[in-house]
Write a structure and sequence with these properties.
206 residues; Serine Threonine Protein Phosphatase 5, Tetratricopeptide repeat; 81% helix; globular; chaperone; protein-containing complex binding; transmembrane helix; cell membrane
Length: 206
């Protein structure tokens, strides 16, 4: 690195540097400002879009709860056109609606859509957990086992193993079901689930 001994030499060096690099620096500054402006615009656009999505979701969701005409169709349209978390919530609500009506095919359709759009790992595990339960109701046992593989996280382990045990039992695999229920008991389940798992294990022993 050069060392400049006088103030004039330092000034001349700075002038020389800008003479050679001034254009590149100017372009860099312009690009930096443009990038910053673009980033701020994108953030503003995203925030506006999420605010609008939130309001639309609340309106469509309330209509479904109130059993208003065309409420299911409107919420379905919302779920399909929104790939953010609100679209996932809409699909989850629709899946619950269909499951209560014993329309498991449409419940599976909505949960599959939700699984494609869910970006948060915990939310994705919840979607897949519900999807596996619906697939069990449809007797799609192999599909349910594959779906359960995507239910991850310690907080979901006990619930995942309970459904896995139910699926394996439906397939006639009593030993596999017993192992799954036992793993669920070892996964620190809630008190309610603990009681349920013990009851299922006891039924296998009887």
């Amino acid at each position: 690195m050069e060392v400049y001994t006088t103030e004039n030499e330092q000034v001349d060096a700075v002038r020389h540097f800008f003479a050679e690099n001034g254009k590149a620096l100017a372009i860099g500054i312009v690009l930096g400002i443009a990038a910053l402006s673009g980033w701020r615009y994108w953030q503003s656009h995203e925030n506006t879009a999420l605010t609008e999505a939130s309001a639309s979701f609340q309106q469509a969701s309330a209509a479904l709860v109130d059993n208003k005409a065309d409420s299911v169709a409107n919420l379905e349209k919302f779920a399909q056109s929104n790939t953010n978390s609100y679209g996932v919530f809409a699909a989850l609500q629709l899946a619950e609606h269909f499951a209560q009506a014993k329309d498991f095919a449409n419940a599976e359709k909505q949960l599959t859509l939700a699984s494609q759009h869910a970006k948060d790992d915990n939310l994705l595990s919840m979607v897949n957990y519900r999807l596996a339960r619906v697939q069990l109701q449809e007797n799609k046992l192999d599909d349910a086992l594959k779906t359960l593989d995507n239910v991850k996280g310690d907080g979901w382990m006990a619930m995942q193993q309970e459904v896995r045990g139910d699926v394996l039992l439906a397939k006639g695999d009593t030993k596999g079901a017993r192992d799954a229920y036992s793993k669920g008991l070892d996964s620190k389940p809630s008190q309610t689930l603990l009681t349920m798992l013990r009851m299922k294990l006891n039924n296998l022993s009887s």
